[in-house]
Amino acid sequence: MKTKSLFFPLLAISLVFSIIVIFVVSLFIPCPENLFPGFKTGYQLRNFLILSFEYFFPVYIASAVFSYSCTIRKDFEASERPHNFFFRFFKSTMILSLTVFAIFILMQELLLPELYTAQNRAVSKSLNQNSLTILAKQNITLKNYGKAGTYIDKALELDPKNPELLELKELCYVNNNENIDSFPANFELSEEIPAQESTPETLNPITKDENITVEKAIETAEYELQNKNWFNAHYYATLAVQLANDRNADKDKALRLASYAWNMIDKLSTTSDQEREYSLFKAKYTGYNLYQQGSYIESYYHFLDLSTKYPKDPDIIFFLALSKQKVQEFTFFIDEVSDYEFFESHTDKLLKIPCLDGGYCIVFFRGLSILNDRNLNNLFFRDFYLLKYKDENLEYSVYTPYSKMILEVDSNTQKTYPVLLLNSIDKKNKDISFKAVFSGNITSQLKSVLSDLFSVQDFYTALDSSYGVETLSLPQSMELLSRFNDFAQPREILLSNIIFRISYPLLFLVLCMFAPVFGFKLSKPLTRKFQFYWILFIPFIFFSISFLILNFDMFLTHLIFYVVCHSSFYFSLLIPSFLIILFIIFSLILGSQRISGNEEL
């Protein structure tokens, strides 16, 4: 009667026992101090899975050696056809080894990176939740209840039943005397943001210059003239002139409307029927002239001052919004950065990014906050340095305390490109500003805005690689290797990582074939009468094999790096080739094994 092999039950018991030990060990690994309480269970579970995957290699090999040593001779003796035993055994061992090899690769290249990403995301969200609570309390202290309510709502998404947050929310609801739209209500903080077309701020029924036709601008100018809104009429008439080409018949009409509107403005400037109305007109006249001359920052602050005195004046509201829109095309408000420093997801990074003109940029920043909102698409840098190289020569360098990158999409080509705003101003105080410091050969128009330097994808690839090759997938490492001169990671490190990722699974496959051979060598003592000290021998096998594999892992890493640094790419491929040869050799050794009576192999 054929006896069923105990190999798989013993292998399963060994693996389960090892997993239990790993689980107990994972419970003693401390969670980050700032980790959100609701995330701790998931974080510890992922820690357990990460440890299980990282130690799967030595644990499986040790379990296989133990299981083979306990069952090989008994299976041989119970075999109905002993002369065919090793052929069937070799076949089943090969199938099992290749199956486990595939599982090992799946864990190493797909599951482990996802688990590491999830762990980092949990820590990042926890820091965000703590920061949101701090910001909410700060704004409540300043009585900015609308802004505080926005932060609390985002924090409650992470912790819906937090009693402190619920109490703060109720306080904001009772005292909310501020427009809640003062801060983006749907903002999200993320590691990476998708590119999208920026949505312009709505100023009036007609707003953005490039979104208006000549005909519509003339129609609006005529409407404003009828309502004696001379400034608005002149603005739209001038806009129509700018949009019209020389062959457009409407250009002459637009010129006449602009001239008439300006004549009316001049006429009003020489009359003073009422002192208050005249003073207001002169103030608006000054601000409008600043806008027409392209002094958008001065125009913004001028209309901002007027808006505090005349908050309901339609001309002031219109041109304040228009000036603000123009200002944000080449600078940004420092107020945007102050809160986002709490959400810096990247700190102290040095990147080397290929430029579209064939050169490259060296970028360094102390902090990076990424804002992903349905209406905003921005990255905020703190202590931002950029050095532009062409043909290995430094063209120019720039430093600014704060910088803002906007990702925009060209409506014609649908190409995504980054725009760097280098100068910043205070939203309310004209005496506070930060300007970029340049050196080298740079044109004046680039001193506030840098555009089309590099691609968005190259920026994110360089940012990802700055965390080390361990965080990259094998395809990403291969992509970086093909462009090793363009990114921060040296070629030797990238190549070593790629060779190791190929070699390590091959080493696992080699030891999968070595396990039954080594198990045979241990099988002879186990055929004797059971001795109690054998129980102590079992953990010794596990510890010894695991210790040897983990140390050989380190040796293999250093060996690969040494070979890569002192040889060519093709020579370094000898290491995985050697492992393949070892696999063939151990397969042949396994296939040539024989058992005769009670003799050892």
Summarize the structure.
InterPro entries: TPR-like_helical_dom_sf, TPR_rpt. This protein has 601 residues and is of the alpha+beta class. It contains 19 helices and eleven strands.
Mind explaining what this structure looks like?
The protein is built from 19 helices and eleven strands. With 601 residues, the chain is of the alpha+beta class. Strand 8 and strand 9 (433-434) form a beta hairpin. Helix 2 (40-54) packs antiparallel against helix 4 (85-141) and helix 8 packs antiparallel against helix 9 (250-269). It is elongated. 29% of the residues are buried.
Summarize the helices and strands and which ones pair or pack.
Blueprint: H1 7-27, H2 40-54, H3 56-78, H4 85-141, H5 145-158, H6 163-175, E1 188-189, H7 214-226, H8 230-243, H9 250-269, H10 275-292, H11 296-309, H12 314-327, E2 332-333, H13 334-340, E3 346-354, E4 360-372, E5 377-390, E6 393-409, E7 416-421, E8 424-425, E9 433-434, E10 437-440, E11 449-451, H14 456-465, H15 474-482, H16 491-526, H17 533-565, H18 569-572, H19 574-591
Parallel strand pairs: 2-8
Antiparallel strand pairs: 1-4, 3-4, 4-5, 5-6, 6-7, 6-10, 7-11, 8-9
Helix pairs in contact: 1-2, 1-3, 2-4, 3-16, 3-17, 4-5, 4-16, 5-6, 7-8, 7-9, 8-9, 10-11, 10-12, 11-12, 15-16, 16-17, 16-19
